[in-house]
């Protein structure tokens, strides 16, 4: 047998710090951002602000546009050099804001507006320059001038900027992250512009931009429509629902604490190397362990929630298989709503969807297993080897979060048990408060080892599905299993008799 795969840890978001100490942001993955941070670090305690650097970027960008618009070979090369400089300076304001704490909503908007303005004028300037160099010549076999092509590309880019800004407003920066390879992002292709102008390829670049920018804009439009159709938690009074439900079952709005938790999770996810954890998840047959995931402030609220519902724990015992206590989603909805809102965290669900590589949905409202707390509080509490078998038509993914762990218990698992010809991998991990385990329930064979004397362990599970449909017979089997092995008949069947409040 192979040993446990390597553990990937994601740094948790910084919790409350002292008034004089400021947490150091994670090192950027992009090379130009790393260089930008190194250059602006001496400016942290000076009067220079990120807005000053944004203004410098704007001026250099306008000079770049003017140079391209002149139409000569020499000015095009000058414009390309200014473009590289402008693109690099664009990283400096953000890095200074991150390491100095000099952030503001106005500054963020100023940065976005400058980016859009410079980029739109850049393509317009390139088009004007190509038109000036070859008057009356159509760059394409259609009656469109070079100047027109430039402004077509520019307008498409403006639309892209606008839609990405709206997406970011709705779901945060992680919703607009660019693809990256080897420390370089998609936009970094502009660093190659000096090679384009050196070999007199400005006209070809213009044609490619006039075709590519509108096509990319269509992709962004599709992404925008998808994001806007996804229901998100709202603040009290906004009148929107946190989850798609039947009109007769309105959902309570997200509490301010849950909004803060979502923001904390998003900040923590900014430090995660998504490419690395995704590769790990796939190589381990849809299994991932992260020792540090939830920010401490979120974990503290989960601990408080777990303590609040302790009187409602349903103890169960199946000889030879499991012993322990549990609290279903129905009780959590009533007595610990923070858990329910965390379950629907947009930042958390985006992260899990990216790992799974497919759309994930909350489990149906009548599923007591959708989110539940599990209590190991008596010596011998455990659960034997099992799969999280799904009775849904689609796949069901399980997310385990550590809440309290003052124990010697381990999550033992076996990977690739259902992959013929692939060597089985055995492993064991403890998931302390804030740790994460995410896996496809039908693939991972796992168990929790018995609790020792004077020990305690509480964990939280979230279940997400790809298709929430379930046949009547499968629903009956699932309900009976949950009633006998986990939550008791009253908790499981209370929805049927209309006793729930949500």
Automatic annotation (TrEMBL):
GO cellular component, one term: membrane
Keyword Transferase: yes
Domain Fe2OG dioxygenase positions: 367-466
GO molecular-function terms, A-Z: phosphotransferase activity, for other substituted phosphate groups
Family matches, as Pfam families: CDP-OH_P_transf, HalD
Annotated organism of origin: Pandoraea anhela
Keywords in alphabetical order: Membrane, Transferase, Transmembrane, Transmembrane helix
Family, as annotated: Belongs to the CDP-alcohol phosphatidyltransferase class-I family.
InterPro entries, alphabetized: BesD/HalB-like, CDP-OH_P_trans, CDP-OH_PTrfase_TM_dom, CDP_ALCOHOL_P_TRANSF_CS, Oxoglu/Fe-dep_dioxygenase_dom
Taxonomic lineage of the native organism: Bacteria, Pseudomonadati, Pseudomonadota, Betaproteobacteria, Burkholderiales
Keyword Cell wall biogenesis/degradation: no
Gene3D superfamilies per UniProt: 1.20.120.1760, q2cbj1_9rhob like domain (2.60.120.620)
Protein name: 2OG-Fe(II) oxygenase
Bilayer-crossing regions: 58-88, 109-134, 140-163, 205-225
GO BP terms in the entry: phospholipid biosynthetic process
């Amino acid at each position: 047998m192979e040993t446990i795969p390597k553990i990937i840890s994601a740094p948790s978001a910084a919790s409350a710090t002292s008034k004089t100490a400021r947490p150091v942001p994670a090192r950027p993955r992009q090379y130009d951002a790393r260089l930008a941070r190194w250059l602006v670090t001496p400016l942290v305690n000076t009067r220079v602000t990120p807005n000053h650097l944004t203004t410098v970027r704007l001026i250099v960008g306008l000079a770049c546009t003017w140079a391209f618009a002149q139409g000569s070979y020499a000015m095009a090369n000058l414009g390309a050099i200014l473009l590289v400089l402008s693109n690099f300076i664009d990283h400096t304001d953000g890095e200074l804001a991150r390491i100095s704490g000099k952030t503001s909503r106005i500054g963020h908007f100023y940065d976005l507006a400058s980016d859009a303005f410079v980029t739109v004028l850049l393509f317009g300037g390139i088009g004007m320059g190509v038109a000036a160099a070859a008057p009356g010549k159509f760059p394409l076999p259609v009656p469109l001038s070079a100047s027109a092509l430039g402004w077509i590309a520019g307008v498409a880019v403006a639309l892209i900027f606008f839609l990405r800004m709206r997406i970011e407003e709705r779901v945060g920066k992680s919703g607009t992250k660019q693809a990256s390879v080897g420390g370089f992002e998609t936009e970094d292709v502009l660093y190659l512009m000096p090679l384009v102008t050196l070999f007199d390829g400005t006209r070809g670049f213009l044609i490619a931009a006039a075709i590519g920018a509108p096509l990319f804009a269509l992709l962004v439009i599709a992404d925008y429509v998808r994001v806007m159709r996804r229901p998100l938690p709202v603040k009290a009074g906004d009148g929107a629902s946190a989850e798609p439900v039947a009109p007769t079952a309105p959902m309570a709005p997200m509490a301010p604490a849950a909004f803060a938790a979502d923001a904390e999770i998003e900040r923590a996810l900014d430090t995660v190397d998504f490419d690395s954890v995704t590769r790990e998840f796939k190589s381990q047959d849809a299994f991932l362990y992260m020792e540090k995931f939830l920010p401490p402030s979120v974990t503290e609220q989960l601990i408080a929630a777990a303590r609040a519902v302790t009187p409602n724990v349903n103890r169960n015992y199946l000889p030879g298989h499991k012993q322990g206590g549990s609290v279903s989603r129905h009780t959590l909805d009533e007595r610990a709503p923070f858990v329910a809102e965390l379950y629907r965290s947009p930042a958390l669900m985006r992260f899990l969807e990216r790992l799974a590589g497919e759309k994930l949905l909350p489990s149906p409202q009548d599923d007591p297993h959708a989110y539940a707390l599990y209590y190991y509080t008596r010596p011998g509490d455990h659960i034997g080897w099992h799969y999280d078998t799904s009775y849904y038509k689609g796949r069901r993914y399980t997310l385990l979060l550590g809440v309290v762990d003052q124990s010697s218990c381990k999550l033992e698992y076996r990977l690739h048990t259902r992959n013929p010809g692939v060597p089985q991998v055995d492993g064991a991990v403890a998931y302390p408060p804030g740790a994460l385990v995410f896996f496809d329930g039908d693939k991972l064979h796992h168990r929790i080892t018995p609790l020792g004397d004077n020990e305690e362990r509480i964990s939280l599970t979230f279940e997400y599905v790809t298709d929430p449909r379930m046949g009547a017979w499968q629903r009956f089997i699932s309900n009976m299993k949950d009633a006998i092995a986990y939550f008791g008949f009253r908790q499981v069947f209370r929805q049927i008799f209309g006793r729930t409040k949500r």
